[in-house]
Design brief:
With 104 residues, the chain is of the alpha+beta class. The protein has two helices and two strands; from the N terminus they run βααβ. A two-stranded antiparallel ribbon has the order 1-2. The model has no long low-confidence stretch (mean pLDDT 85).
Length: 104
């Protein structure tokens, strides 16, 4: 068995990147909490123009349709802002790269 080694030194950039999934998940959770708070604060009296009263569960569902996507988007935007701020701390390092190829 013969194998060949290839060795070279290259430069690589090391930077910290925020975890977008975690930030967007936190945004979704905050959106659910906001929908719950808005549901508890709302009044459920019959309106004077329409004879319709929506139950709190339905109001909560309607609010989720708005607050969850907004929280998701705000979490993504927070991640982008954090990534821009972290770019100032990028480092360029030298890395030894080895490639070993084994042949028959």
């Amino acid at each position: 068995m013969a194998h060949t080694d290839s060795h070279q030194t290259v430069e690589a950039t090391v930077r910290r990147v925020p975890r977008y999934g975690v930030l967007m998940g936190v945004g979704v959770v905050l959106g659910i909490i906001a929908a719950g708070i808005l549901t508890m604060v709302g009044s459920y009296e019959e309106s004077q123009t329409l004879d319709v009263v929506y139950p709190p569960e339905q109001v909560f569902g309607f609010l989720l349709l708005w607050t969850v996507p907004i929280g998701l988007a705000l979490g993504g935007v927070a991640g982008l802002i954090m990534e821009r701020a972290a770019r100032r701390h990028d480092r360029v390092v030298r890395v030894d790269r080895e490639t070993v190829v084994e042949g028959d």
